[in-house]
Amino acid sequence: MVINFAAGPAKLPEEVLKEVQQELTDYNNTGMSIMEMSHRGSVYLKINEDAMKSCRELLKVPENYKILLMQGGGSGQFAAVCMNLMGKTGSADYAVTGTWSWKAYKEAQKYGNANLVFPKPENFTTIPPQNEWKLNPNASYLYYCDNETVDGVEFNFVPETNGIPLVCDMSSNFMSRSIDVSKFGLIFAGAQKNVGPAGVTVIIVREDMIGNAMKITPSVFDYMDVAKNNSVSNTPPTFIIYIMSRVFEWLKRNDGVEGMSKLAQKKSQLIYGTINKSNGFYTCPVDEQYRSRMNLPFRISGGDEALEKEFLQKAEKAGMVQLKGHRSVGGIRASLYNAISFENTETLNKFMNEFYEGKK
Ligand code: PMP
Question: I need a surface site. Which of 148, 247, 280, 342 has the fewest CB within 10 A?
Answer without folding.
Answer: 280
